[in-house]
Amino acid sequence: MFSEATGGGCLIVQSDLTMLLAVDHPQYEEARDALSGFAEMVKSPEYVHTYKLTRLSLWNAASAGLSTDQVIDQLRRFAKHELPPLVVTRVVDWGKRYGRVKLLLEDDKFILRCDDEYLAAELANTKGVAKYIRQTLDAVSFEVDVAWRGHIKQALIAAEYPAEDLAGYRPASPLSFELREQALSGASFRLRPYQTEAAAVFHANGEARGGHGVIVLPCGAGKTIVGMAAMAQLQTETLIITTSITAVRQWLAELLDKTTLKEENIGEYSGERKELRQVTATTYHILSMSERHRELLDSRKWGFIIYDEVHTLPAPVFRLTAELQSKRRLGLTATLIREDGLEGDVFTLIGPKRYEVPWKTLEKSGHIAAVECFERRVPLAADLRMSYAVADKREKFRLASENPNKYKLVQDLVQKHRGRHILVIGLYLSQLDEMAKQLKAPLVTGKTKNKEREELYRQFRQGQTPVIIVSKVANYAIDLPDANVAIEISGSFGSRQEEAQRLGRILRPKAGDNRAWFYTLVTSDTVEENFAAHRQLFLVEQGYPYTVVSDPQ
Questions:
Q1: In this structure, what is the dihedral angle of CA atoms 197, 199, 204, 206, given to the nearest 10 degrees?
Q2: Which of 293, 309, 391, 402 has the most other CB atoms within 10 Å of its CB?
Q3: Which strands make up the sheet holding 266-268, listed edge to edge?
């Protein structure tokens, strides 16, 4: 397929808009960095990485200032063969659609402006767009209601004319603070180069085209630090929305440790506390609960909203976000994969992807741990085989997931990694409860009170508790930097997002050899094998191959 490593291009570009990149080619790193700006990575196993051109990837590129000519030039530079004509056509056709419609604020009017009268006529007759038009101003311009700014952007992307939003932001309450050079904990603190770059790309020197978008970095790469760096650039009151009270408190602790903000500047708005301060952290759940809680969005002149783990953004908050377009918005995530396919809504309502670094790139630089991934297959318990044979597919999955033969393997793995910090993660509470009894280890679930949960995490971090059993509460935003072994005993069907988040629990850089181990336990010859293959897909694409080991029957 490819010539010798020293000859020919490193990229095979195909008419179906997929591209194959040779890892062992001298141009690999240069080509990889270029592709990250305008193509989506599909998979990245050991030797050949696959990318794909999509409308969304080209619109992201255009929003970052990359022209269609530049995209085509980059493809020609690295291509082994002549570019297929269809690829050039698609790049031009899709890429040029971004920015043909602009949203502007002129003389206190919110304007939708097209680049020609024909497009204006088309949109005026597009039902989804027309309902937001107040009046026609001229042949190419309409006045629209600023209150529907987010909804208009959704309608435009549905019409395949994504808007370039240059309407800017309303004045907000200022907040003066700095990042520390030495954290209060005593550790030296400075941004890593990629964190500095991510924050700068998002900020875009304060221009209207900046200040909204998504930063994609692996778990453990310091997304919270990027958020704080963006806050330091904007110097405005900030609302932080995240997944749990634990994550809320981690954000607030990091802000106190690494910035000059004081306790009186920051607040927690949760089921336990209702503090509204210059920097307030809350949860998606709170915002989804009732109109009364959502009023906090208008209770202060927030100039900046941070959406932590933006890939988990629930539908009710999507609706709210459509109405928050006058505020700067940053989404942080390890993966933009959404099992509901709403990546386009993230693009319109939070903003385009502004910055991304491949997982393996940060592993090579030592900024995240080097992880070995294993799929350990165990036979189904003999007394469950008949029940499994006659069960429907959903019940088959549960029987396979809760296979009692997994207990012995977990015990063996815990013994093998004795002396390390071990997480046993699962879905089914009865299974986790039994595992906790057998290992004589504490169990953390959604029912565990926050105070008890935080104490157990503290004991784990300090090595007093070497093994902890956790349910889905561990999928997101748990700060356990010393965790270096994760054993997944059961999971949510084929969720790629969950698999990536669980691996992320052990990715923070480690002292010493900076290594970690991830095990997913699968019942052989059952539907769990197929679901596991799908769960692993994103991580395999990121360059984490699983070594499959079958235990004896």
A1: -140
A2: 309
A3: 266-268, 279-283, 238-242, 304-307, 328-333, 212-216, 353-356
**Residues forming beta bridges with residue 371, ordered by sequence position:** 516
Tokens standing for residue 438? 């057998």
Phi-psi domain of 514 (left: phi exceeds 0; alpha: psi -120 through 50; beta: other): left
What mean pLDDT is predicted for residues 532-550? 84
Q: What is the pLDDT of residues 216-251, one digit of tens each?
A: 998 889 999 999 999 999 999 999 999 888 889 999
Q: What is the 3-state secondary structure (H, E, C) of 97-128?
A: CCCCEEEEEECCEEEEEECCHHHHHHHHCCHH
Facing residues of 404 across strands? none
Q: What is the pTM of this model?
A: 0.83
Nearest to 162 by CA among 127, 133, 123: 123
Q: Which domains does the chain have, with CATH numbers?
A: 11-95 (no CATH), 101-165 (3.30.70), 193-357 (3.40.50.300), 368-550 (3.40.50.300)
Supply φ then ψ for residue 419, to 5 degrees. 95, -10
pLDDT per residue as tens digits for the range 52-68: 999 989 998 998 889 99
Other C-beta atoms closer than 10 Å to the C-beta of 437 total: 12
| pLDDT at residue 351, rounded to an integer | 87
Rounded Cα distance between 154 and 114, Å, is: 16
419 DSSP assignment: T
Other Cβ atoms less than 10 A from the Cβ of 513: the count is 9
pLDDT score for 339: 60
